[in-house]
Here is the input.
Amino acid sequence: MKKLIPFIAFGVLLIGCKEGKKKKAETMKEEVVKTAEEMPEEEAEFQITPIEHASAVFQWGETTIYLDPVGGAEAYKAQKKPDLILITDIHGDHLNVETLDSLDTSNATFIVPQAVAEKLPESYASKLSILNNDDIKVIHGLTITAKPMYNLREEALKFHTKGRGNGYILEKDEQRVYISGDTEDIPEMRALKNIDIAFICMNLPYTMTEENAASAVIEFKPKKVYPYHYRGKPDVSDVAKFKKLVNEGDPEIEVIQLDWYPNEEY
Here is the structure.
């Protein structure tokens, strides 16, 4: 059964590359986890449960948020039913109708870009709140801003076109959480301000390198950053390298690694 992992937890540092990864994991694994009961109340408000790759469950006060839910009902059996479902893009690691159909979404509002809305069955129409880049929605006490996510490299433009998908900023009680979605180190990311928690992707050929991700993070200076969405094709990004680059550039930024691939060894 998955356990909620508070955002201040120090995660497992695992570096990706299938060959030799067991040995690396054994030598690098260091986990320090605090439970919500051990933390001051204000620090226990935002909790994170990584599901896999791009999928997560956030508990923010009384609000349960599913991010890009895929993986079937089994992956969510220990979770509360969602109040909000955020979907970033149309690809199968972000949008999976079969998973959505298997969940109890009776009380959920879906925050989606137009391209995702067009892929969903008509039965979901009444649940949708469509946000396109830079649109803002206030719901459940959260201010949700849709942010651009797209590719810059010529060879990658076909993967994520500008304006189709959304990253998101979630804001409540003066705390700001940024979810990158599938993107490269675009100007809109680099220009972010006052981000407390950032979830940053890095996987080739679809998004960006560890170097580009670290460079962007150093520029917009979140207080805490969680590398996620780091399995590529065929390689797995080196999140230990990402952490090293970030901390060399700005030691004040805390890089936290959670287990985004519970069924894999990286």
